[in-house]
Structures are given as C-alpha cells and as structure tokens.
Amino acid sequence: MAANKISKCLTCSHRERAGIDLALARGVSVRALASRYKLSRDTLYRHAKQHLPAQLRASLIAGPDLSIDLDKLRETESQSLLANLVNLRGRLFSALDVGEENGDANMVARVAGQLHHNLEITGKLLGDLSTGGSTTINNVLVLPAYVQMRVSLVDALRPFPEAARAVASVLHTIEHQAAEAITADKRELAA
Ligand SMILES: [Zn+2]
C-alpha cells in the first residue's frame, strides 16, 4: 500500500528528486520549487508532508550522504559503476544549484568537494577501463574540465540570478542528455 502511494507521487518519481528534497529540507518555498521543477504545488506539499520525514530532512541538512563504498563498487560491473557515478554527479550538481540559490557558501564548498571526489573516482575507473580494453568515452559528464567550467560559470553568474537560472537550465539539459548517452554506451558495450 505504501509503495503504491509512493509510485503515484510525481515528486518522488521526478528525476531531480534529490535536489527537490534538499531544497525542501532547507526551507526553499513550495512556490519557488513548483515553478523551478514544473511540479504542482499540491504534489510538492503532499510529498513534503508524507515522504520527507523529519529524520530525512535533518540528514539532508547535515549533508547528503553521498559517500562511496569503494570495496562494494569493485564488485559491480565497471560500466554500471560509471553510470552510478554519473547519476550521483547529477544529484551533486542539483545540490550545488540549491546551495547557490540559497547563497550558502558552506554548502557550495562541501558539494564542490564531493564533486571533486566523484571525479577522482571516475578518473580512476576510466583509467582501469582504458587498460582493460579499447573503450573510448567522450562524455561531458566524465570530463574534469567540464566540471571546472561549470563550477566557475555558476560562480561568475552569482550576481546575476536570472542569467544563472537560464544557464543552469541549459546545463541540466546537457547533463541529462549526457547521462542518457552513457546508458546507451552501456548497452552497446554489453552487446
Ligand atoms: Zn513523494
């Protein structure tokens, strides 16, 4: 019954749920989130009330638990690991935007640190992949220069909220497409 309730929640099934939860936990208004994520206020209110318990809010505010268990990941197939890292990076980017939106320098610094860590692990993985075969990966999400550019860009646009939102929207689109491309690569490699 509970699972059924969750599956009907548009906020729960939103691809940027992590960013939305973080924003709700940090007190960003439902009105702002409704327009930002193209969700109705009703679903956001319901989600905040029913699917975001106080304990989860507290842990989100304390810092998203995005640590990576390397030993566990070694047991998984490399390509799905890459997809997971990219997925995680999408969540980190969303968190970065929430931090920027709230002018929370501490949060921005923390999330940027986690992005850096994510990159290091991805780089190590790609190193492993390139020694193991002839896989070529051309994807913005796995390029350290892209992430540096993104962080600098968002930083430079801080005094211009309108422009920052427009750029963030473009970046989200690019990243979503790139994440889908990686999923496609994965299928190709498996074939
Ligand atoms: Zn929900």
Q: Helix tally?
A: 10
List the secondary-structure elements in sequence, H or E.
Answer: HHHHHHHHHH
Amount of beta strand: under 5%
Helix-strand category: mainly alpha
**Measured distance between first and last alpha carbons:** 38 Å
Small molecules bound? zinc ion
Provide the domain count: 2
Q: Helical residue percent?
A: over 70%
The stretches of 5 or more residues where confidence is low (pLDDT under 50) are 1-6, 130-136
- Report the major sheet: none
The pLDDT mean sits at 73
User: What is the strand tally?
Assistant: 0
- The whole-angstrom Rg is 17 Å
Shape: globular
Brief summary:
The protein has helices at residues 2-7, 17-25, 30-37, 41-50, 54-62, 70-74, 78-101, 105-132, 144-156, 161-190.
Task: Summarize the structure in words.
This protein is mainly α. It has 2 domains: 2-60; 67-190. 74% of the residues lie in helices and 0% in strands. It has 10 helices and no strands. It has helices at residues 2-7, 17-25, 30-37, 41-50, 54-62, 70-74, 78-101, 105-132, 144-156, 161-190. The longest helix is centred in the last third of the chain and has 30 residues, at 161-190. The chain is globular and about 45 Å long. Zinc ion (ZN) binds next to loops.
